[in-house]
Design goal:
Shape of chain A: globular
Strand content of chain B: under 5%
Strand order of the largest sheet of chain B: 1-2
Radius of gyration of chain A: 24 Å
Oligomer: heterodimer
Number of strands of chain B: 2
Helix content of chain A: over 70%
Largest sheet of chain A: 2 strands, antiparallel
Helix content of chain B: 55-70%
Number of helices of chain B: 6
Distance between the termini of chain A: 73 Å
Strand content of chain A: under 5%
C-alpha cells in the first residue's frame, strides 16, 4: 500500500480522534496552585509578576556578588593583602619583564613608572589573573546559577517563555528563545547549546548570532556591576534594543521558516535542595574549568604584547579608527584583544583605564557595550564552529562584524547628537 | 473559607491594596526626583536609584492585585490575585532585608563588622515595602485555609 504523508490538518484531526477515544474529560476543581499558574501566564497579571521576579533575581545577584563577597571581602583580600605581599616577595621588582608579566606591570605617572595599588590595574597573571575569576566572577556566577536553578526548578521559566512569546514572534523567534537567552546570561556556552531544540536552521542561526553578540555572560555582568554600577541600566537597555532590532532585521533577510513550537508548561513545584546544589556545583565548576585558564592566558598574552611593544603598535594603528568610528580612545585596543579570550577580563582592563582617568563616562559606556557586542569569547566561538555549518558560521561572523560596525557607530552618533560623545 | 473570613479578607486587602498603591505612587514620584525620608519611612533610593522605579511599579501592581481580588474574594482565582500581590511584596521586601544583611557583615576597616556596626545596619529608616511585609503575611492564613479545603 502506498503511504501518503498526512497534511498538518489531517494530523490534527487524527490526534483529536485518538484523544476522543482515549482521554476522559470531566469537571475538575481548580486548586490555588492552578489559579496562580494561570495568572502568571496571562500578560495583564503575568508581566508585573515577571518584573517582580526579575527584580528579585538582580537584587540578589548584586548584593550577593557585589556587596557581600567582592566589595565586602575579595577587594580587601586581593588589594590589601595578596598584591602587596606579592609585590614585596616576588623577585625582580617594578620594570622587570618577568615581574611585570606575573605580578605588576605598573603604570606611568608624570613620566615615572609607579606600582599599582589594586589588582585591576596591576595586570599580572598572579594578580589580575586570579582576582578576576576568584575575586569577582566566581561570586557573580554562583549567584546567577543559584537564582537560575531556583526559577528552573520552581517551574517559572516556561511561564516567562509564554509571556515573551508575542514579542519574540516579531523577530522570528518564539517564547522558548528566552531559555537560551537566560542561560547565556550565565555563560554563552550553555546558551548556544540550548538552541538545539529550536526547529529550523534559520531560528538556530538567528539565536546563536544574537546570543553571541547581545547577551553578556554572568562573569561579564558581575565585573560590569562592580566597575560601572551607575551605567548598568543604560548598558542593558542598549543591548535589549540591539537584540530586538537586529533580530528583526535578521528575520527579514535570513531565508527559512520560523514555525510554531508547542511547549509543555509544568505545574509549579517546590524546588529540592539536592537538585539545586548539584546543578549549582555542575555549572559553577564547569564554568571555572573553562574560564580560569582563559583568564590566565589572556593576562599572559596581553602582558607579552605590552612588553614587546605590539600593543602600542596596534593602539597607534587602530587608534584613529576606534576614535573616529566608535569614539573610544586607542587604549581600548588591549581590552578588545583580551576580550576575545575572556570578556570579564577585558572589562576588568577597562576598569584599570578608568582609574587612570583615560576615558570619559560616555567612552566607558561605549567601550563596555562594544566589548559586549564585538566578538564572542573564544569558548563560544569554538562552540559556534561546532554547532553551525561553515556557511552559517561565516554568515554569523559577517553578521557579527556588520552589527558591531553599525551599532557601535550608531551609539557614537547618538552620543554626538546628545552632546555627550 | 466562611463568610466572616471572606468579609474580613475583603476589607483587609482593600485597605492593604490602597496603602500599597499609595506607597507605590510615592516611590514613583520619589524616583523622578530626590526622594523623601519621613520619620522612619524612607523612599530616597539612595542605596539603589536604578531599582527605585521598578520597586514602585511592583508596589503599584501589588496594590492593584489586592484591590482586584476583593470582589468575590473566596473564589479561587480572586484569592490567587491576593496571593500574587503578597508574593510580590515578599520579593521586594525580602531583597531590601537581604541588602541590609549583605552590607552588615563586612566591616569598614576590618574583615567583619563590629556588633554595634552590625546592629546599626538594621536601624530605621525603612523602605515602604518593609512596612507592608508583616501585613502581607495575613495571606498565609488564607492559603492554609484553602489547602485545608482542598484536602
Amino acid at each position: 500500500m502506498l503511504k501518503v504523508p498526512l497534511s498538518v490538518d489531517e494530523r490534527w484531526n487524527l490526534i483529536e480522534k485518538i484523544s476522543k477515544q482515549t482521554v476522559e474529560f470531566g469537571a475538575r476543581k481548580h486548586t490555588l496552585k492552578d489559579a496562580i499558574a494561570e495568572l502568571t501566564v496571562k500578560p495583564l497579571t503575568g508581566i508585573p509578576v515577571a518584573i517582580a521576579v526579575l527584580y528579585g533575581f538582580w537584587s540578589f545577584f548584586i548584593d550577593f556578588a557585589g556587596t557581600l563577597f567582592t566589595d565586602g571581602f575579595m577587594v580587601r583580600l586581593f588589594d590589601e593583602h595578596w598584591l602587596p605581599w606579592l609585590q614585596s616577595v616576588f623577585p625582580g621588582g617594578l620594570g622587570n619583564p618577568f615581574y611585570a608579566l606575573l605580578v605588576d606591570a605598573g603604570h606611568m605617572e608624570n613620566g615615572v613608572l609607579v606600582a599599582s595599588d589594586n589588582c585591576l590595574e596591576s595586570f599580572g597573571v598572579l594578580t589580575s589573573g586570579f582576582f578576576v575569576p576568584f575575586g569577582v566572577v566566581l561570586w557573580a556566577v554562583l549567584a546567577f546559577y543559584l537564582m537560575f536553578a531556583l526559577l528552573e526548578d520552581v517551574g517559572y521559566l516556561p511561564r516567562l517563555a509564554v509571556l515573551v512569546d508575542t514579542v519574540l514572534h516579531k523577530i522570528g523567534l518564539h517564547g522558548y528563545a528566552i531559555v537560551p537567552t537566560f542561560l547565556a546570561l550565565g555563560c554563552n556556552v550553555p546558551g548556544v547549546t540550548a538552541t538545539r531544540p529550536l526547529e529550523t536552521r534559520k531560528q538556530r542561526f538567528m539565536m546563536i548570532t544574537l546570543l553571541s553578540v547581545f547577551v553578556p555572560c554572568g562573569a561579564q555582568i558581575g565585573i560590569m556591576q562592580d566597575l560601572v554600577p551607575e551605567l548598568m541600566g543604560w548598558i542593558f537597555l542598549t543591548l535589549v534594543i540591539g537584540y530586538l532590532g537586529f533580530g528583526f532585521i535578521l528575520n527579514k533577510i535570513v531565508a527559512g521558516k520560523s514555525p510554531e513550537i508547542i511547549m509543555d508548561v509544568p505545574p509549579y513545584r517546590m524546588p529540592m535542595l539536592k537538585n539545586i546544589v548539584s546543578k549549582l556545583w555542575i555549572r559553577t565548576s564547569r564554568f571555572l574549568l573553562v574560564a580560569v585558564p582563559f583568564v590566565l592566558l589572556g593576562c599572559l598574552i596581553v602582558g607579552l604584547m605590552y612588553l614587546t611593544g605590539a600593543m602600542d603598535w596596534l593602539a597607534t594603528v587602530l587608534g584613529p579608527f576606534l576614535m573616529s568610528w566608535f569614539g573610544v580612545p586607542g587604549e581600548t585596543v588591549a581590552p578588545l584583544i583580551a576580550g576575545f579570550l575572556r570578556k570579564d577580563l577585558a572589562v576588568g582592563m577597562l576598569g584599570g583605564l578608568m582609574e587612570q582617568g583615560i576615558m570619559t563616562t560616555f567612552q566607558v559606556f561605549t567601550s563596555v557595550v562594544l566589548l559586549c557586542i564585538y566578538f564572542p569569547c573564544l569558548a563560544t566561538f569554538a562552540l559556534m564552529l561546532k554547532e553551525e555549518n561553515w556557511k552559517e558560521f561565516l554568515g554569523s561572523i559577517a553578521s557579527l562584524i556588520a552589527m558591531v560596525l553599525v551599532y557601535g557607530g550608531l551609539i557614537h552618533l547618538v552620543g554626538i547628537m546628545l552632546g555627550v560623545a | 473559607m466562611n463568610e466572616l473570613e471572606e468579609k474580613f479578607g475583603q476589607i483587609y486587602f482593600a485597605v492593604l491594596g490602597a496603602v500599597g498603591l499609595a506607597f507605590g505612587a510615592a516611590e514613583l514620584i520619589a524616583s523622578a526626583g530626590e526622594g523623601f525620608t519621613w520619620g522612619i519611612l524612607d523612599s530616597s533610593g539612595a542605596a539603589d536609584p536604578t531599582f527605585l522605579p521598578w520597586r514602585a511599579i511592583i508596589l503599584l501592581s501589588a496594590g492593584f492585585f489586592y484591590l482586584s481580588s476583593v470582589k468575590d474574594f473566596a473564589e479561587i482565582h480572586q484569592l490567587a490575585k491576593a496571593v500574587l500581590g503578597s508574593i510580590m511584596i515578599w520579593i521586594v521586601a525580602g531583597m531590601a532585608i537581604w541588602s541590609r544583611i549583605a552590607s552588615s557583615i563586612p566591616g569598614e576597616e576590618t574583615w567583619f563588622n563590629s556588633l554595634e556596626g552590625f546592629l546599626a545596619s538594621y536601624a530605621p529608616p525603612y523602605c515602604p515595602e518593609m512596612f507592608l511585609l508583616p501585613f502581607s503575611l495575613v495571606i498565609v492564613y488564607y492559603i492554609l485555609k484553602e489547602k485545608e479545603a482542598e484536602r
